[in-house]
Design a protein that fits this description.
The protein has 15 helices and 13 strands. The radius of gyration is 22 Å and the shape is globular. This is Homoserine dehydrogenase. Belongs to the homoserine dehydrogenase family. It is an enzyme of class 1 (oxidoreductase).
């Protein structure tokens, strides 16, 4: 039996869904000879961990209680008496996390699973990789920090997995790694990597005003509470940076050309969400509709995409694309990625499917954890 100790950082939607997946897959994993031993869970304020991280774990009842408390918006510090568990407050939690990493990293191994959306985890991750720990990421920020941080994280490539940072559960990173390791150079990537912006662009293609589409997307739960977080293109830029660095580009976020769908004068510092939705975005309708009409006259459609090409081009924004291309046929909130290489030159390798959602993202994280099981010792 492979026994994989893991510590989860981040108990938001993805983190809670991951814990539920782990519990629901117990019998399946037992058949596969794997046991995922959750020894600790932390949020931004607290850490709960097993009283003896060498031999014990947070049992399934405790994991469900963690999910319940966090789904109510409370901190882990609100957990009551959980028996064989200890809860640390914010002032001591980081030190204790490092103690656990030092104890287990070189001995049994330990998987740090980052399902947060915070840059605060970067310092911890940079230290634990040198302690023999594995790192599994859904959080994009550690991979889109400065090159020094990135180099540290990927310095042990066998011990890091981050499939869910780009396309939720889609096999984007794995496919690129297979091409690159086989000596098939990738010279162009173009893709729609935001389910929100994919939905928005396909709806305005049907003649609907941008303002109405964004409001509808917000009501459907497709956008962040402030839709400008999606419309800024920054999330797509982070995904593009991860892909570009995977191809060997030594660039940072400020090297990427980013087209925002709203001007600076409509940014969060200038107007509230309510003002933006009530009056700001309405003033953008005509310009977007004109761009849609122009594209249609050329036999094309508009898509919000990332483009990585050659040795220098890396940008995200609206592009005119042929209607009959994989990206042109895209409807709804799916992600689509076209990869061009020596072997996939005229006809690209196309990866398409659900690229967002807590369930899909958590499933991708779980698959990444299982993918590193050979790095952990077997237990009789």
């Amino acid at each position: 039996m492979k026994n994989i100790p893991l510590l989860l950082m981040g108990c938001g939607g993805v983190g809670r869904q991951l814990l539920q997946h782990i519990v629901s897959c117990r019998s399946l994993h037992a058949q596969q000879g794997v046991h995922l031993r959750v020894i600790g869970v932390c949020d931004s304020k607290s850490l709960v961990f097993a009283s003896d991280v060498i031999t014990r774990e947070l049992n399934d009842q405790t994991l469900y209680e963690v999910c319940r408390v966090k789904s109510n918006g409370s901190s882990l510090s609100a957990l009551g008496d959980l028996g064989e568990c200890i809860v640390y407050g914010n002032s001591e939690s980081k030190r204790k996390v490092m103690d656990i990493a030092a104890l287990l990293g070189k001995a049994t191994g330990l998987a740090f699973v980052d399902c947060s959306a915070s840059s605060e985890t970067i310092g911890v991750l940079n230290q634990v990789v040198d302690m023999g720990c594995c790192v599994v990421l859904a959080n994009k920020k550690p991979l889109t920090s400065i090159m020094e941080d990135y180099d540290k994280l990927v310095s042990y490539p066998r011990r890091i997995r981050h499939e869910s940072t780009v396309g939720a559960g889609l096999p984007v990173i794995a496919s690129l790694n297979r091409l690159l390791s086989s000596g098939d150079p990738v010279h162009r990537i173009i893709g729609s990597l935001s389910g929100t912006l994919g939905y928005v662009m396909s709806e305005v293609e049907d003649g609907k005003p941008l303002s109405e589409v964004v409001k509808a997307a917000k009501n459907l739960g497709f956008t962040e509470p402030d839709p400008r977080d999606d419309l800024s293109g920054m999330d797509v830029a982070r995904k593009a940076l991860i892909l570009a660095r995977l191809l060997g580009r030594r660039i940072n976020l400020d090297n990427i050309k980013i087209e925002s769908l709203y001007p600076d004068e409509m940014g969060p510092d200038a107007m509230s969400v309510e003002e933006f939705l009530a009056s700001g975005i309405v003033s953008l309708d005509n310009d977007v509709q004109e761009r849609v009409k122009k594209a249609l006259l050329n036999g094309n459609v508009l898509r919000y995409v990332c483009v990585i090409e050659g040795s220098s081009r890396c940008e995200v924004g609206i592009q005119e694309l042929p209607k009959d291309s994989p990206l042109g046929r895209l409807r709804g909130s799916d992600n689509v990625l076209e990869i061009y290489s020596r072997c996939y030159n005229k006809q690209p390798l196309v990866i398409q499917g659900a690229g967002a959602g807590n369930d899909t993202t958590a499933a991708g994280v779980l698959a990444d954890i299982l993918d590193i099981q050979d790095l952990f010792p077997s237990k009789e």
